[in-house]
Write a structure and sequence with these properties.
Elements: H1 2-20, H2 28-36, H3 39-43, H4 51-65, H5 69-84, E1 114-115, H6 130-134, H7 147-151, E2 155-160, H8 166-171, H9 178-181, H10 219-232, H11 235-238, H12 300-313, H13 318-326, H14 330-338, H15 350-361, H16 364-371, H17 373-376, E3 380-384, E4 389-394, E5 400-405, H18 406-411, H19 418-421
Antiparallel strand pairs: 1-2, 2-3, 3-4, 4-5
Helix pairs in contact: 1-5, 4-5, 12-15, 13-14
This protein binds a DNA duplex (14 and 14 nucleotides) through helix 14.
DNA sequence: TGATAGTCAATACT
DNA sequence: AGTATTGACTATCA
């Protein structure tokens, strides 16, 4: 805590200097100038139906009037409180654009390393997003705000989707007993999936970030681990690493247990073969081709079992999964998992099972990306001109402030040593 | 218009 | 805290 306090003192000192120096006094024109890089982004998205839009505006307003240290500091507090004061996952979804975001209607290209205070989007009808869900790789590198450009302004507010300890933070409460639960599913590293997606299933290396040794990491460690992982990016997908996460993938079409004869469970096929289909329902069902993702007949019972197992395995609450992956309520998910209807009897409800199924197929990294939304889209970086320190604001439910070295942020955003990045004080909320 | 499916939100339960 | 249950509501369809 002393370190945290020192960090605070450091910032306070900067802010004091800022307030005392007339030339550094924040001027609203510059303030807006500092943000204007992103105004097109902000205005191009509907802010309605979105409490985080309100949070963004509030930040803007708060910082606009902050002309002294106390005002600034209190603004930070209000940001933290206002943006995340209460956990409303149903409204915290769509700013996350990293890959598998089924609820996201925002245009691709917003999930850059630094995106500024972008309002959230309303949820689309479920039927409109399944394809996006299925092609998650296309939304991950764009609009990287150049910090160096922004720093020259008065100050900069950024949403930080890069640095995210998010994954670890999200899962940190859920890490208990990971080692024991790892046996519930086969840890096969490369599943010869019949749907042609097996090639991406090797790269589930990142699980170790929140696995057996992930839960007790400090924020700073999480930061580093995750950024490193993000930096590796797609390389993950082409490397057969067979890491601890290798057990994440479901077994489809009964092709499972590869290399793991000790697997205690025997799963039926997720995708029903043609002989399993009820004759009455087979007219629109096809055997899934590679990447078809839409027309396959899903073994709902099997999907339900595997989703249940995965949620248990990683201690992911139903509410989180339901909200962020399925855009459904906890009660709905619970019912679907416990009482899955046969595929042939489903109508629009098939979409929900498709989402579950697709989530099961996602590389682990993408799965977790889909689950870490709330924090990632509220993460922000505040950089004050002339300051060497940046504030990273992470509202509730993960509320905290972190201090970052601006230079480090600018130059090596994905490779900053943890020790330089996070001096934050936890437990502020 | 009634039957059915799908979902939510409240609430009970563990 | 997380999960299960349930009544109410809407949408769809015959």
């Amino acid at each position: 805590m002393k370190t945290a306090y020192d960090a605070y003192r450091c910032l306070a000192k900067d802010l004091d200097a800022y307030a005392m120096n007339p030339e550094m006094t924040m001027d609203i024109g510059n303030l807006h100038g500092g943000i204007s890089h992103d105004q097109d982004l902000m205005s191009s998205h509907s802010p309605h139906h979105n409490r985080n839009a309100g949070a963004s505006l509030r930040i803007h307003q708060d910082l606009t009037v902050a002309s002294s240290r106390s005002a600034m500091v209190s603004s930070m507090a209000s940001i933290l409180d206002g943006a995340g004061g209460e956990y409303r996952p149903e409204l915290s979804l769509p700013l996350h654009h990293a890959m598998s975001m089924p609820c996201d209607t925002s245009p691709p290209g917003m999930s850059g390393t630094y995106t500024t205070l972008t309002p959230l989007q309303p949820l689309p009808p479920i039927s409109t997003v399944s394809d996006k869900f299925h092609h998650p790789h296309h939304h991950h590198h764009h609009h990287h705000q150049r910090l160096s450009g922004n720093v020259s302004g008065s100050f900069t507010l950024m949403r930080d989707e890069r640095a995210l300890p998010a994954m670890n933070n999200l899962y940190s409460p859920y890490h208990k007993d990971m080692s024991g639960m790892g046996q519930s599913l086969s840890p096969l590293a490369s599943s010869p999936l019949g749907n042609g997606l097996g090639s991406i299933h090797n790269a589930q290396q990142s699980l170790h970030n929140y696995g057996a040794h992930g839960h007790d990491k400090m924020l700073s460690s999480n930061f580093d681990a995750h950024t490193a992982m993000l930096a590796r990016g797609d390389q993950h997908l082409s490397r057969g690493l067979g890491g601890p996460a290798a057990g994440m993938m479901p077994h489809l079409n009964g092709m499972h247990h590869t290399g793991h004869p000790s697997h205690p469970q025997s799963h039926g096929p997720v995708l029903a073969s043609s002989r399993d289909r009820p004759p009455s329902s087979s007219s629109s069902s096809v055997t899934p081709g590679a990447g078809s993702g839409q027309l396959e007949e899903i073994n709902t019972k099997e999907v339900a079992q595997r989703i249940t197992a995965e949620l248990k395995r990683y201690s992911i609450p139903q509410a989180i999964f339901a909200q962020r992956v399925l855009c459904r309520s906890q009660g709905t998910l619970s019912d679907l998992l416990r009482n899955p209807k046969p595929w042939s009897k489903l109508k629009s409800g098939r979409e929900t099972f498709r989402r579950m199924w697709k989530w099961l197929q996602e590389p682990e990294f993408q799965r977790m990306s889909a689950l870490r939304l709330a924090e990632s889209h509220m993460d922000m970086i505040v950089i004050l001109r002339g300051f060497s320190t940046a504030l990273r604001i992470v509202p509730k439910p993960y509320g905290r402030l972190e201090m970052c070295a601006v230079e480090a942020l600018m130059l090596r955003p994905c490779r900053v040593p943890v020790s330089q990045m996070a001096l934050g004080w936890g437990g502020i909320m």
